[in-house]
Design brief:
Layout (H helix, E strand, L loop, with lengths): L9 H12 L3 H14 L4 E7 L5 E6 L6 H6 L27 H7 L2 E7 L6 E7 L2 E8 L4 E7 L6 H6 L3 H18 L4 E6 L2 E6 L4 H9 L7 E7 L4 E7 L11 E5 L2 E3 L2 H10 L12 E6 L5 E2 L10 E2 L2 H18 L2 H4 L6 H15 L14 H5 L3 H9 L10 H5 L17 H7 L11 E4 L3 E6 L2 E6 H19 L4 E11 L2 H17 L2 E6 L2 E8 L7 H14 L8 H13 L9 H12 L14 E5 H7 L2
Parallel strand pairs: 1-7, 11-13
Antiparallel strand pairs: 1-2, 2-6, 3-4, 3-6, 4-5, 7-8, 9-10, 10-13, 11-12, 14-15, 16-17, 17-18, 18-22, 19-21, 20-21
Helix pairs in contact: 1-4, 2-6, 6-17, 8-9, 16-17, 16-19, 16-20, 18-19
Bound molecules: adenosine-5'-diphosphate (ADP) and magnesium ion.
């Protein structure tokens, strides 16, 4: 048999390598920005068109290349950054594989203009799919400009695989943030479709973080500084109360290189343990400096993973220095960890009860009537509140801000009502209205049905009800909104704004009214009925997080996601006690739904048990 093994032609090898290096426009952005940094630039400009699908251009003022180097830079394994395998272990540059330019040139139209400082003229090279189309001398400033057009023009499958512009742009912005955060000493700017998205002047680290994530970030930052023999840490963590629903503000840099590390992330989370709610993620922007010899960044082709020699020590140091910082800034002790309304309220009520000396407000107080006034109901409390400056008033502060939603939590101390509890034990009291529902552990609603009984998960059931309601509003495009007394102003990062912009119209169909929607601020003057003002920012954050976690594909529907996310945020929670009327209403509304049996996320909403089932158990 004849020999069958052949060497792959270079352009084929390059295309294959490109598959590894270039997954999407954002990968090109990363490679080009890193090359510009390695070239010692002090100003770097990123220009994007159509989320990078049409154009990605990086212009730097770095050292540039000679004509020969310019030509060589597109060869595979052409790099100026390592000379021997040894160099790999003390790497101070970003690149080293010498693959990026060759790979990119294999799958796009590339134009390079570059000039060394001392040269009069620079070099222009045009390449399409690994083929050099043109090489010339050109007038160009010192440094390098590299434009990448029509990415994946010769690999239609990859091109089709690209996500929507919003998604691709978000990936690009993420890369841009990572690089810009790692290098505050470099001026960065970014333009998308002709308008400026970011302008980040050379600054210190704190300013860089603030310039990227918005002015309000400043007050959130707690500095973390630590220097030990093996590790130097510097940077910031966010105060726990600003923890986000998304992981969008979590950054580790090791020797100025963005990395992902579940292990180190765990160290931070454990330092924040008890300080942030479950499902919230503390922000951090931390730079770790270690001996380059003690890490191996070569284990992952896109180089965001890293291997440390002594992970355990790093973990311990990181955790303790973050804890220390939180403690030093007096954050740990003052925090009220358990923020759940349903848990808070009874406690504050109890406090208030214990120390409420009615003497101080009731001018006609008679100590012998104390018993009587103790028995008073909420009506009295209201009058107390009007009394000026009584010391104990501060105890109400927490209560007032809880709004009406918590009213039901007072049920156990309200005198006039509490039917669901008494009725459990004294059926005879409520003979005239036959009670058909009971609440179990503030979680399940039990209802009698003809064949036996039905057990409903209150949270899921309510999600289903709200979800169908929102969907209806969204499709009919007419929702009722309630006007806010004062406009509500909320700040978001530019990434978050991109997401919100995309959903603006749908949000309006649910009942949101925006009076302004620009830069990093939105102003809200109306919200959907039933949405408490205090929940608005949580709802929007949850929504952004849901959208970001969803991998949007062809059947991705923003409308559906919005309805799901809002119903999740607004549904009554497990732990919330409901009055009989509320319970009945929940049951009835659920069965008025089109699909009562599952929640919007396809979880069972109720189960039934027949009398037969019981009979069997009693056999
Ligand atoms: P690597 O960065 O891994 O060395 P690349 O393919 O990204 O490989 O780049 C190849 C070489 O081209 C680099 O080693 C560098 O010498 C040169 N180069 C690339 N981009 C620039 C730039 N913006 N300025 C100066 N030189 C550059
Ligand atoms: Mg490179």
């Amino acid at each position: 048999m004849a020999d069958i093994i052949q060497l792959l032609p270079d352009h084929v090898a390059n295309q294959i390598a490109a598959g590894e290096v270039v997954q999407r426009p954002a990968s090109v952005v990363k490679e080009l920005l890193e090359n510009a940094i390695d070239a010692g630039s002090s100003t770097i400009k990123l220009i994007i068109k159509d989320a990078g699908k049409t154009l990605i251009q990086v212009i730097d003022d770095g050292k540039g290349m000679s004509a020969t180097d310019a030509r060589l830079s597109f060869e595979r394994h052409a790099t100026s950054k390592i000379r021997s395998a040894e160099d790999l272990f003390s790497l101070n540059t970003k690149g080293f594989r010498g693959e990026a330019l060759a790979s990119i040139a294999a799958i796009a139209h590339v134009e390079l203009k570059t000039k060394l400082e001392q040269d009069e003229l620079g070099t222009l090279i045009e390449i399409e799919g690994s083929t050099i189309k043109n090489q010339d001398m050109v007038v160009t400033p010192k440094g390098t400009s590299l434009s990448v057009k029509n990415l994946f023009f010769n690999i239609p499958a990859r091109r089709n695989f690209l996500k929507s512009n919003n998604v691709e742009l978000r990936h690009i912005i993420d890369e841009f943030h990572r690089v810009a955060l790692a290098h505050p000493d470099i001026t960065f700017s970014m333009y998308h479709n002709g308008s400026e998205s970011f302008n980040l002047p050379e600054s210190n680290y704190r300013q860089r973080v603030v310039n990227i994530f918005g002015g309000k970030t400043n007050e959130k930052l707690v500095p973390v500084e630590e220097e030990t023999e093996v590790l130097k840490i510097s940077g910031f963590v966010g105060k726990p109360e600003f923890a986000k629903r998304t992981k969008s503000e979590q950054f580790f840099f090791v020797n100025n290189r963005f990395i992902k590390s579940a292990y180190l992330n765990h160290a931070i989370n454990s330092a924040f343990e008890g300080l942030v709610k479950e499902g919230s993620h503390p922000s951090y922007f931390l730079n770790l400096t270690v001996d380059p010899k003690s890490i191996d960044i070569n284990i992952h082709p896109t180089k965001t993973e890293i291997k440390f020699d002594d992970e355990h020590t790093l973990y311990a140091i990181l955790r303790s220095s973050v804890k220390h910082s939180l403690g030093q800034f007096n954050i740990a002790p003052v925090l009220d960890f358990e923020r759940d309304n349903n848990l808070d309220t009874p406690y504050s009520y109890r406090d208030k009860n214990a120390t409420t000396p009615k003497v101080e407000v009731d001018r006609s107080f008679n100590p012998f009537q104390e018993e009587k006034s103790q028995v008073s109901s909420r009506g009295l409390t209201q009058t107390y509140r009007k009394e000026p400056a009584a010391q104990w008033e501060s105890l109400y502060v927490g209560l007032e801000s809880k709004g009406t939603k918590t009213d039901s939590d007072f049920s156990e101390v309200e005198f006039e009502s509490d039917p669901e509890k008494t009725s459990l034990f004294s059926d005879d009291v409520t003979t005239e209205t036959v009670q058909t529902t009971y609440q179990l552990h503030n979680k399940y609603i039990i209802s009698t049905i003809k064949s036996g009984m039905m057990i409903l998960d209150q949270h899921r059931a309510h999600q289903r009800i709200l979800y169908e309601g929102f969907l209806k509003h969204l499709t009919v495009k007419e929702a009722v909104s309630q006007q806010l007394l004062f406009p509500l102003t909320l700040e978001f990062s530019s990434t978050e704004m991109t997401v919100l912009q995309q959903l603006k119209e749908d949000l309006e169909h649910t009942g949101f009214v925006f009076s302004s929607f620009k830069d990093s601020t939105i102003e809200i003057t109306g919200v959907p009925v039933n949405v408490p003002e205090s929940e608005v920012s949580i709802i929007l954050e949850q929504l952004i997080s849901d959208i970001e976690q969803e991998v949007p594909d062809s059947n991705f529907s923003a409308t559906d996601l919005l309805a799901k996310s809002m119903s999740k945020s607004l549904a009554i929670k497990t732990g919330q006690s409901l009055t009989t009327i509320e319970q009945e209403h929940l049951v009835n509304s659920l069965f008025a739904c089109k699909e009562p049996s599952v929640s919007p996320t396809n979880r069972v909403t109720f189960i039934t048990m027949s009398v037969d089932d019981f009979d069997k158990k009693f056999m």
